[in-house]
């Protein structure tokens, strides 16, 4: 059994002394652990134990009548723990809503019942002729996929508890929870569009695979009707009584998506993301786990939510880095979704306008079915992108004369303009013109960002801040200057440059207040805003059909970043921002300002679009033996003193080399790109291998050894399998 503690391995207990029914894997148990009781989850039942029998303790009590997890759920969680080298307890408790990690019983109004398992649904009833009562019971349950209470069954068939036990033993029925009151089923309020031929092809290909594992990449430009494809598939699926799971990077940013599903899909939708209250989350979790929600729409952790009748998984914006958890249990919601589909045998669709190079590689090598929607749906035209060389140009507000003129023209015509600047705050640098002092974070290797409205300097990495000094802290000089430009400054400058125009700024600072983002989006949709400016929040999820001109400012830094994924991310960002603009009668135009117009990334993106860029980038990765042509693991270490992490990683490297690994390459240790962060020094060791199984075998041994390594107090280390940020 796994207990809520970051420990490797499972713990053995004797059955509870109370005369409970036989416990079932997936149930929560209360067990004595150290000096107190803890919640554990029963993973397996064994006849023997390696522990000294006199030291084994009894389970205190069984907390759940019905197991929270089914066997396939436990299989997925166990697989994830092994793959990402995490204790099973950590993985199991990540999969549980927070309230259920404590002994509390459910925030729930359900009653226990039974229902047919998938085997029970497909079994030939003729094979039960010699057990007519079992046959009758199963036949009734097959008509009620959500299940029935034993007393309801008794009312129809007489006492059937023995019969139910026999069927449960055969794996044909299982215990479940039932809603006490039947839920009203919403009827969908709107029909969809007639699908275009590309959409129809995609829907047919995926629907043909219902009932079997098959991964698909759905690559469709923004506005090509991917969501419409999802909706059709889910409609077809739920008509046969099954459930669908849709994973998205962030729900807070896309409330419209939920509305769209709600209007078109019959049956309750359970939404799961971090800004719901704990009670709401748990209730929705139960509705999914009871098989009652026909659709679960959630962020990455929803990949673990039990869904007894799951028949289709969709991952939208599959390239988005936030599908990967970046701390603690570092798992990829997307990759686990593929594994889950494989475990239960259902199709999975990864959708994006700008697929990750990993998924594209899987598509080009034929491992994934590759479905493409190259055209915008409903006749809208894709925007054209052009480069604007700003070298030697007189800039105002960071805008070249060409872009300013273009803006004037659009404003005069009553159109909307979008300006993208991926840096919030007023200025990224605050410095003394006399002595050269700059505002640095005392806890990080980072500059403080000036936020003029708040009169503060903020560190965007650790959250530390100080009041804006009026005189230089070093020489007491008065000539302090703000260098560079963030969205706050751009907004101020635009108000001077275009005094007549109405403006909206969209970034984390301007949308902090609850409901503010929606208020701004609504105003934009109604056409009350003429110029919208903002950070990458603008690149996610929202369409701005009235925008006819997009200006992308200052992406040059990203072109030369050290992370090998930086070009991929930059290309995705450009295409995603560009894709927000335009519709049928108002095609969009995108202008990208740069001082490096000859840069190969920009050139390939412009001449051949995202696919051309991706093909070139994949060739580069192949040459450099980087993912997806090799598998990557990072061992990260951080500690309060500068040389501690590197010293630990050197030992870790020795340990790795002593185990004489095949096909494993070690690189480093090296300091992390930002070595000091929140007063902790950070370093990393890279492990690369072309062969996944060798890598997994190596990691299993190495991870054990790492736990045995002595290290200074305060040092923390973690393995990051398939890291997204370097
Ligand atoms: P994506 O998810 O690829 O961005 P959507 O599914 O949101 O695309 O579709 C973009 C727009 O086109 C939406 O307004 C949608 O209603 C419309 N649309 C989708 N499919 C069709 C179709 N077959 N015919 C006409 N309009 C469509
Ligand atoms: Zn000074
Ligand atoms: Zn800091």
UniProtKB/TrEMBL annotation:
PROSITE patterns: HELICASE_ATP_BIND_1, HELICASE_CTER. Binds 2 zinc ions per subunit. SMART domains: DEXDc (SM00487), HELICc (SM00490). Its EC number is 5.6.2.4. One of its GO terms (cellular component) is primosome complex. Zn(2+) 2 binds at residues 441, 444, 459, 462. Its cofactor is Zn(2+). GO terms for biological process: DNA recombination; DNA replication initiation; DNA replication, synthesis of primer; double-strand break repair. It catalyses: Couples ATP hydrolysis with the unwinding of duplex DNA by translocating in the 3'-5' direction; ATP + H2O = ADP + phosphate + H(+). Keywords: ATP-binding, DNA replication, DNA-binding, Helicase, Hydrolase, Isomerase, Metal-binding, Nucleotide-binding, Primosome, Zinc. Residues 467-634 form the Helicase C-terminal domain. It is an enzyme of class 5 (isomerase). Residues 207-373 form the Helicase ATP-binding domain. Zn(2+) 1 binds at residues 432, 435, 472, 475. It comes from the Bacteria. Signal peptide: none annotated. GO terms for molecular function: 3'-5' DNA helicase activity; ATP binding; ATP hydrolysis activity; DNA binding; zinc ion binding. Belongs to the helicase family. PriA subfamily. Component of the replication restart primosome. Initiates the restart of stalled replication forks, which reloads the replicative helicase on sites other than the origin of replication. Recognizes and binds to abandoned replication forks and remodels them to uncover a helicase loading site. Promotes assembly of the primosome at these replication forks. This is Replication restart protein PriA.
């Amino acid at each position: 059994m796994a207990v809520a503690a970051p420990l490797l391995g499972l713990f053995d207990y004797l059955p509870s002394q109370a005369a409970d029914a036989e416990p079932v894997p997936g149930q929560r148990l209360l067990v004595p652990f150290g000096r107190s009781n803890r919640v554990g989850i029963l993973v397996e039942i064994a006849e023997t134990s390696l522990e000294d029998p006199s030291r084994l303790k009894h389970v205190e009590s069984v907390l759940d009548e019905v197991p929270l997890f089914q066997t396939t759920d436990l299989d997925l969680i166990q697989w994830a723990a092994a793959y990402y080298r995490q204790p099973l307890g950590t993985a199991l408790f990540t999969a549980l809503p927070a309230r259920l990690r404590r002994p509390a019983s459910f925030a729930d109004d359900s009653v226990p019942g039974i229902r047919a398992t998938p085997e029970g649904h497909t079994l030939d009833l003729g094979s039960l002729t010699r057990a007519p009562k079992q046959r009758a019971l199963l036949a009734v349950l097959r008509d009620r996929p959500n299940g029935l209470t034993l007393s309801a069954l008794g009312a129809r068939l007489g006492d059937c508890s023995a019969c139910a036990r026999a069927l449960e033993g055969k794996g044909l029925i299982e215990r479940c929870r039932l809603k006490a009151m039947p839920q009203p089923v919403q009827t969908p309020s709107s029909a969809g569009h007639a699908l275009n031929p590309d959409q129809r092809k995609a829907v047919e290909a995926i629907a043909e695979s219902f009932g079997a594992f098959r991964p698909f990449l759905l690559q469709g430009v923004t506005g090509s009707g991917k969501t419409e494809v999802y909706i059709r598939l889910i409609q077809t699926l739920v008509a046969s009584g099954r459930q669908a799971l849709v994973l998205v990077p962030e729900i807070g940013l896309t409330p419209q998506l939920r509305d769209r599903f709600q209007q078109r899909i019959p049956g309750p939708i359970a939404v799961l993301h971090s800004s719901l209250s704990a009670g709401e989350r748990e209730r929705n979790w139960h509705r999914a786990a009871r098989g009652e929600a026909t659709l679960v729409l959630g962020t990455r952790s929803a990949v673990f939510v039990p869904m007894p009748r799951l028949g289709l998984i969709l991952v939208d914006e599959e390239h988005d880095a936030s599908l990967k958890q970046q701390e603690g249990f570092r798992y990829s919601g997307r990759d686990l979704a593929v594994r889950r589909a494989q475990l239960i045998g259902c199709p999975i669709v990864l959708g994006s306008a700008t697929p990750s190079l990993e998924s594209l590689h899987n598509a080009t090598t034929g491992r994934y079915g590759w479905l493409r929607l190259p055209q915008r749906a409903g006749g809208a035209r894709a925007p054209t992108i052009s480069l604007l060389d700003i070298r030697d140009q007189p800039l105002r507000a960071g805008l070249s004369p060409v872009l300013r003129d273009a803006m004037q023209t659009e404003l005069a015509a009553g159109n909307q303009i979008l300006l993208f600047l991926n840096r919030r705050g007023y200025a990224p640098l605050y410095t003394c013109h006399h002595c050269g002092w700059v505002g640095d974070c005392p806890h990080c290797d980072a500059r403080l960002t000036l936020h003029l409205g708040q009169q503060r300097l903020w560190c965007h990495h650790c959250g530390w801040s100080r009041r804006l000094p009026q005189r230089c802290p070093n020489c007491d000089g008065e000539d302090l200057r703000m260098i560079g430009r963030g969205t706050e400054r751009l907004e101020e400058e635009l108000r001077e440059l275009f005094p007549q125009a109405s403006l909206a700024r969209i970034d984390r600072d301007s949308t902090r207040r609850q409901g503010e983002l929606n208020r701004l989006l609504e105003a934009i949709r109604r056409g009350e805003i003429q110029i919208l400016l903002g950070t990458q929040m603008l690149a996610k999820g929202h369409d701005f059909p009235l925008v006819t001109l997009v200006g992308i400012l200052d992406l040059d830094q990203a072109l030369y970043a050290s992370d090998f994924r930086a070009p991929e991310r930059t290309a995705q960002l450009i295409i995603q921002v560009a894709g927000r603009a335009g519709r049928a009668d108002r095609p969009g135009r995108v202008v990208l300002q740069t001082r490096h117009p000859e840069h190969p990334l920009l050139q390939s993106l412009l001449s051949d679009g995202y696919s051309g860029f991706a093909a070139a980038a994949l060739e580069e990765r192949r040459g450099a033996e980087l993912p997806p042509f090799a598998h990557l693991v990072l061992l990260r270490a951080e500690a309060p003193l500068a040389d501690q992490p590197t010293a630990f990683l050197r030992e870790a490297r020795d340990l790795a080399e002593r185990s004489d690994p095949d096909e494993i390459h070690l690189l480093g240790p090296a300091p992390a790109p930002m070595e000091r962060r929140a007063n902790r020094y950070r370093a990393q060791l890279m492990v690369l291998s072309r062969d996944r199984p060798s890598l997994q075998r190596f990691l299993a041994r190495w991870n054990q050894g790492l736990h045995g390594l002595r290290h200074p107090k305060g040092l923390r280390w973690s393995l990051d399998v398939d890291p997204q940020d370097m």
